[in-house]
Specification:
By secondary structure, this protein is mainly beta. The protein contains no helices and 11 strands. The relative contact order is 0.32.
């Protein structure tokens, strides 16, 4: 079992930066692909980014490429999402996710989900 707890959300203005963090329980953290999804009001959950268990591979959604950066610290069992140049359309609840496989972009494959953290970007 893996438990995920997100932190770092908040209200910012367009162009600002924000850093989300996800703390994971479990001794096999490095065997999991970790990632972030987001869900805006009235929309389906959307893949944002994922990082492989060994940290060598990442995959970003086109909408955040060049602005968001994912990183993981296996010693601390954390995965962070640095979000720069935020836009109003980035407003959503952001969920930390984990799966014991390679990188996938479909939400249905992720076995573990955090409760989410709200990110609101004002124009």
């Amino acid at each position: 079992q893996v438990q995920l707890v997100e932190s770092g959300g908040g209200l910012v203005q367009a162009g600002d930066s924000l850093r989300l963090s996800c703390a994971a329980s479990g001794r096999t953290f490095r065997t999991y692909t970790m990632g972030w999804f987001r869900q805006a009001p009235g929309k389906e959950r959307e893949f944002v980014v994922a990082i492989s268990g060994n940290g060598r591979s990442t995959l970003y959604a086109d909408s955040v490429k060049g602005r968001f950066t994912i990183s993981r610290d296996d010693a601390e069992n954390t995965v962070d999402l640095q979000m720069n140049s935020l836009k109003p359309e980035d407003t959503a609840v952001y969920y930390c996710v984990a799966v014991r496989s390679g990188i996938v972009t479909s939400a249905r494959y992720y076995d573990y989900w955090g409760r989410g953290t709200q990110v609101t970007v004002s124009s």
